Amino acid sequence: MIILDTNMLWGVSPDNASVDLLKTIRASGVQGVAVPWTVMEELAAQRALKHTEKYDAAVVAIRALRDNTPGPITTRLPAYEPEKVRQYWRDAFAAIVEVLPPSAWALQEAAFREANVLAPCKRLEVKGVNKPVKTGSRDAAIWLTAVEYAREHPDETVYFVSKNTDDFGDGSSYKVPMSTDLQGLEDRFKHYTSLDPVVDQFTQPTEVDEAAVLDRLGTPGAASVIAQEAAAKWAFDTDDWGHIKTPRFAGSLWPAVNADGSERFVERILSRGWVGRPTAQMGLVSDVSAYRVGEHVWCTATVQWLLTGLSPRDGQLGVARVGCAWETRVLLSPTNAESQLTILRSTPPRPLAAEEFEGLPDPTALPYAPGPDDPSAGLWRQIAKVGQSESRTLLESALVAMSLWAVSRRKEE
Asked: Roughly what angle, to the nearest 10 degrees, separates helices 82-94 and 37-67?
């Protein structure tokens, strides 16, 4: 198990190359990658405190602007919700590492060591304070969680990674009682001060077999994974039909033909989500890298997926045929048939150009793919066909309205 200290992830965004390697190691199953609970809470707290600082500055700036502006200032900040900020970052880092919960013993021992100034705890001189301040219980909790994991998993080697050489040392020697903590674990507790030796131990760059990567990306299984992820990420809830909501992704309506039939054009929209599951088709593939991890080759690649599906008409009853391009950084193994395509990170979707729709399936011509509890299979496809008409008849508009009402009633039941 690779166990990381806070300083190994502080300042690291969840979308860089180092994180990709950690995710690759974790996905391969060769080694787990984890942080003690204390580390996760420190990471979330650091982001929340920074948010609080910027939020307070924004409040002061807006107040000053109001005081120095003739007429009203309508700018309003969103509600101050630091727990939402903390949870956002917990979720972001949970995609990289698992969390090791601390035991009652570890927390009690950490508090005891701080009270008694036992390593890795210490006293610090603080300006304005008459006597040294005891500190280090969080460091002790991190250390003891890693040590306890090693003792409870005798078949595993723990790779503890921390830049904090002042408190934890450099791995060559330890103060008492830290040296006592490791008695009997000397061969199974490896302490590093950077990720480089850990990454080098478990990943070796290798030649890229681009043909094999493209074959794997072009399978129906890969397209299905992307479609499911897109449906989950930008899902439209029929219970919210008609509510004013912030658009969720940029897309294009299905191309129309000019009056003279000369050229197709698209209308760009801001969609409120997918109705059902879109279809996905592989587009451009670039920046392919390959690593050998354990017995298999793992590859990362940047892939642009062309998505088409049904989406609510903004401000209207009915749904429309919508397309967008979604760029993702994905992880796959061309040598491990049991592995599944994994999205490492992605960018917001962009609208499709008219020519990019060529060869894509018309959502209204495909079987509808409802969710597991969706009672309206096929209904949205029928509504989309009605919605293709620029001037619907009164009967058709009534059909759409009645269909939406029927769906909402079925959901209530």
From this structure: 140
Site of tokens 């904090």: 164
> Quick one: pLDDT band at residue 28, thresholds 50, 70, 90?
confident
Beta bridge partners of 346: 328
Q: Which residues, at least 6 apart from 68, have a Cβ–Cβ distance to it below 8 Å?
A: none
**Which of 189, 107, 97 shows the shortest CA–CA distance to 150?**
189
**DSSP-derived secondary structure for 320-358:** EEEEEEEEEEEEE-TT-TT---EEEEE---EEPPGGGGT
3-state secondary structure 50-67: HHHHHHHHHHHHHHHHHH
Q: Are residues 288 and 363 in contact, defined by beta-carbon separation less than 8 angstroms?
A: no
> Residues 6 or more apart from 172 whose CB is under 8 A from it?
none
Structure tokens at 195: 């990720």
Question: Diameter of the chain by CA atoms?
Answer: 86
- The upper half-sphere exposure of residue 99, i.e. CA atoms within 13 Å in the direction of its Cβ, equals 17
Give pLDDT tens digits for 256-295. 776 666 667 788 888 888 887 899 999 999 999 999 988 8
Determine how β-strand 249-253 pairs with β-strand 204-205. Answer: unpaired
Encoded amino acid at 388, one letter? Q
Buried b (16+ CB within 10 A) or exposed e, 105-134: ebbebbeebbeeebbbbbeeeeeeeeeeee
Strand partners, 171: none
Q: Does residue 158 contact residue 150 with C-beta atoms inside 8 Å?
A: yes
- Per-residue pLDDT reduced to its tens digit, 197-256: 988 889 888 998 899 999 999 999 999 999 999 988 998 765 555 555 555 899 999 887
β-strands 350-351, 249-253: how paired?
Answer: unpaired
* Predicted TM-score (pTM) of this structure: 0.78
β partners of residue 256: 265
User: Across-strand partners of 328?
Assistant: 303, 346
170: closest CA among 186, 191, 189, 188? 191
Q: Which of 339, 219, 232, 361 is nearest to 282 (CA)?
A: 219
For 218, the 3-state DSSP assignment is coil
Q: What is the mean pLDDT of the chain?
A: 85
Task: Choose among 239, 216, 158, 246: nearest CA to 342.
Answer: 216
